Amino acid sequence: MIASPGLFFLIHSHSKGGKAQMICISVTPESRQLAKVDIYNAANQCDLVEVCLDRLHKEPDVKDIISGCKKPVLISCRPVAEGGHFDGTEEERLALMRQAILAGPDYIELDPKSAQKIPRFGKTQRVVSFASMTRPLNDVEEAFEEATRCQADIIKFTWPTETLESAWPLLAVVSQKRMLPVVGLGLGRCGLTFSLLGRKYGSPWIYAALERGMEAFPGQPTVGELDDVYRWRQVDSKTRFIGVVGGGVIELAISKILNAAFDLSGMNTRCLPLDFKSLDQVPKMLDILKIPAVIATPQAGRRVMSLATKGDDVSTASRFSDVIIKSADGWQAHNLVWKSTLRALEAKLGKQSGEDRPLDKRNTIIIGSDGLAISLAHGIKRRQGLVSICSGDEVEAQKIAQSCELRYVPVAKLYETLVDVVALTANTLDFGSKKSPLNPSLLRPGMTVMDLSEFPGESDLTQEARERGCKVVEPSEVFGDYVGLLFKSLTGQELPPDAIVSGLSD
C-alpha cells in the first residue's frame, strides 16, 4: 500500500481552522553562558524553543537557563543511540532530566524507558519519543500503546528520511487522526520535505535549526530557510505543492523565486523539495499528495523524464525534461531551458551582427554530455547552426554525435578546433578517475561563450572569458528568463516583475 487510509482522508478532506501550528527551533549549546544567548535568539524567531542539554560540558542549572525565555520551552537530553551527544552514564542522564522537569518547562522529551522512571510533575507536558536512527520504526501501533502507558501528552517519531520513500511512513503517521497528537522529525534530505508536508497535514510543530552549524541533526533545515526560501508560515491545509527534484544552489534559487512569485500573485502554492530512490511508487505518491507538476534541475532532468508518458519534441529527442506536468493523459514532459539559452545566445550574437538568425551557419561547440548539452544541440540545430560536441566521456559524446547527427570532436583535437560559439555544460573534461581541467587557451578574443556549468551562477571560466575578450552570455540572464518560462508553464501567467528581486533578496 502506498498510503494509509488516514493519510488519504486528510489529503482529500482538510478541516478548516484548528490549533495554530508551531515552529520549534532546536538550541544545542555547549556552555551555560551561550545557552541563554542562543535561547534568546531562537525565541525571537519561533514559537517553541527546544533546549538540548546533551552537548553541555558542565551540568546546567536548567531553571536559570530557561528563566528568561518568553516562549514555551521543550527540554531534551538524548543519548548517542538516539542521535544525541550525551556521553555520561544513563543514571547521570536521568538525574539531569529529573532536575530539568523540576524547573517547570512546558514540555519534556522522554524516551519510553526514561518515561517509566520519571513521573509526571506539575504542568509539564510529556513528549514520549521513539527514535530509530537507521530505518523506519517497525511497529507504530505498539509505540502508541506504549506511549499511552507512559502517560504521554504528545508522541514523537524520528527516523531517516533521505528519500520520499523513507519519509512516507513518517508522513502517514503524522497525518492520521489519533488520540495523541503526533510530531515527526525526519533525518536527512527529505526531512525538509517532511517538515513542509507536516505543516500542511497538521503536525503540532515542526523542527528547525537557528542557523547553519547549529543543527540538532545533520541536514536539519534552518528557520531562515523555511522562512526565506519556502515561506512556510503561509502553508496550510489547502496549499498546493510543486515538486522540485535535484539539489544545490539551483534548486534553492528556483524554489525561492517561484515561492516569491506565488506569494506576489496571491497563489496558495509552494515548492516542495523531493528526492526518490526509484520511480516505482513515485507516480502514486505524487497523485496522493496532489502534486500537479515536478520541476527538475539539470542534474535530475533525465530521471524526471522517466516519469512522463509523453513529451514535447526536444524533451523526447534529448531524453531530458526540466518540468513534467500532470494532464488527463498522464505526465507530460517539457524542456524549457533550451528556449532560454537560445534566446540569450541569439540576443548576444544578434546584438553584434544585427542578423535576424545569428546562429545560422555559425560553428558552435558544446562541451558536455548531459541532458542539458543534448537539449542545446537540438535547439541550435533548429536554428540551422553547425554543432560539434566534445566531452571527457568520449564514448558518450560519440553516441550523442551519432544519434543527434552532430560533429564529434575528440578531446585531443579540442584546442585545434575553430568555432564561433562555445557552450559549456561542464567546465572540465573530467571522466571517472581522470581529472582534466579545461585549458582557458580554448577561449579566443571575439568568440561568444555561454557557460552553464554552474548555472545559475558563473564559473571561474566565465570570468576568464571576459578577460580574454570573449562575448559572454550571462548565466543570470538565462536563469531569469528560464524561471519566467517555468512560472508561465505552471500558472499560465507572467512572472511578477518583483519576483526575482524579492526571491533572491537576503
Brief overview, please?
38% of the residues lie in helices and 19% in strands. It has helices at 5-12, 32-43, 62-66, 90-102, 112-117, 140-149, 164-175, 191-201, 223-229, 248-264, 282-288, 301-305, 313-318, 337-353, 371-382, 394-404, 460-467, 475-491, 499-504, and strands spanning 22-27, 48-52, 73-76, 107-110, 125-131, 154-160, 182-187, 205-209, 240-245, 269-274, 293-296, 310-311, 323-327, 330-334, 363-367, 386-390, 407-408, 421-424, 448-451, 471-472. The strands form 3 sheets. An 8-stranded parallel sheet has the order 7-6-5-4-3-2-1-8. Strands 10-9-11-13-14-12 form a 6-stranded mixed sheet.
Describe the structure.
It is built from 19 helices and 20 strands. With 506 residues, the protein is α/β, with parallel strands linked by helices. It folds into 3 domains: 21-218, TIM Barrel (Alpha-Beta Barrel); 259-335 and 482-504, 3-Layer(aba) Sandwich (Rossmann fold); 339-473, Rossmann fold (3-Layer(aba) Sandwich), CATH 3.40.50.720. Helix 7 (164-175) runs parallel beside helix 8, helix 14 crosses helix 15 (371-382) and helix 14 packs across helix 18.
Task: Give a topology summary.
Blueprint: H1 5-12, E1 22-27, H2 32-43, E2 48-52, H3 62-66, E3 73-76, H4 90-102, E4 107-110, H5 112-117, E5 125-131, H6 140-149, E6 154-160, H7 164-175, E7 182-187, H8 191-201, E8 205-209, H9 223-229, E9 240-245, H10 248-264, E10 269-274, H11 282-288, E11 293-296, H12 301-305, E12 310-311, H13 313-318, E13 323-327, E14 330-334, H14 337-353, E15 363-367, H15 371-382, E16 386-390, H16 394-404, E17 407-408, E18 421-424, E19 448-451, H17 460-467, E20 471-472, H18 475-491, H19 499-504
Parallel strand pairs: 1-2, 1-8, 2-3, 3-4, 4-5, 5-6, 6-7, 9-10, 9-11, 12-14, 15-16, 15-18, 16-17, 18-19, 19-20
Antiparallel strand pairs: 11-13, 13-14
Helix pairs in contact: 7-8, 14-15, 14-18
